[in-house]
Amino acid sequence: SVKVFGEAEFWFSMIKVTAIIGMILIGIGVLLPFTGMAPGPGSSVSNLWNDGGFFPTGFSSALLSLQIVVFAYVGVELVGVTAGEADNPKVTLRKAINTLPFRIGLFYVGALLVILSVQGWRHYHAGQSPFVAVFQYLNIPAAAGIVNFILLTAALSSCNSGIYSTGRMVRSLAQRGDAPSGLQNLSSRHVPMLAICFSALTMGVGVLVNYLSPDKAFAYITSVSTIGIIFVWGSILVSHLVYRKRVAEGVLPASDYRLPGAPYTTVLALAFLALVVVLLFFSDDGRTAILVGAIWFVIVSLGYFVHRGDRATEVVVRH
Question: Residue 159 and residue 154: Cα distance in Å, rounded?
Fold first, then answer.
């Protein structure tokens, strides 16, 4: 239920937020010379631009990281999914959306700025969490255990959001006839229980992938998820362009909560998504994602048209 989802997400998020804010505050304390917290002379804000500047390995390396960076933001679109069960969506959704840039700036950009200031970029290596590296550098005991606990709660938070949102989406598909009709049934608590169970079982695919290819599982899943979310975000942006066109034609009422700079910002976002797709071709994992994503979309498209054909035949037979 939305209540259980909200309560669980509150505690999961509180653990994540507390840990990140704590790390940022400790990092700021280390960077301030009068606190005496720095374990060595290497911590300085100048680490951000020293030793090669902001792009020490080249701007192309930063571009190629976008396929993973995009994955980190999967879920921001779920704010809209909650509109159907919110008491006052005009107020709560507006507040949630308006605070997103601040949250991204603090928890993503802010944390990275602090981490890279405490230690230069050469101290971080693939296969090791930068949070663990910072905690160990600051002589904080049980650094790996603390970070692993935080990562576990982050994973549970992601699963919590995913099960809640996909359960509602699957039920919506079932109501429109694009999924088995039984998935639209509600429990006595008005929760789409079958759709939620289907969503949870589908997560088992990730366990299977991790079992078959533990070394590549993360890269596979994040890359393929990137393909899926690009399609979702692209659909939302195109829908927004169509909506604005309908408003201009007088077919739909105008909203009092408008996207700043639209439609130019919408087109710019679509161009960015197209750039990410192009960049996927420049890495092995990205090409794998493109291939697997293409196969998945072909299967889904064929299933859609076959299902639609069956429904059309059923209607004809009934008449």
Answer: 9
Q: Are 150 and 15 in contact (CB under 8 A)?
A: yes
The answer to whether the beta carbons of residues 168 and 84 sit under 8 Å apart is yes
Residue 99 main-chain phi, psi, to 5 deg:
-90, -10
Question: pLDDT tens-digit profile of 10-59?
Answer: 888 888 888 888 888 888 888 887 777 766 677 888 888 888 888 888 88
Nearest 5°: phi and psi at 308?
A: -65, -40
* 296-304 CB contacts, 8 Å cutoff, 24+ apart: 296/224, 297/231, 304/178
Distances (CA, A) of 2 to 37, 56, 84, 87, 156: 43, 46, 11, 11, 16
Q: Which residue has the higher pLDDT, 193 or 296?
A: 193
Q: What is the dihedral of CA 209, 215, 216, 218, to 10 degrees?
A: 80
Cβ-count burial of 294 within 10 angstroms (0-12 exposed, 13-18 middle, 19+ buried)? exposed
Distance (Å, whole) CA 12 – CA 268: 34
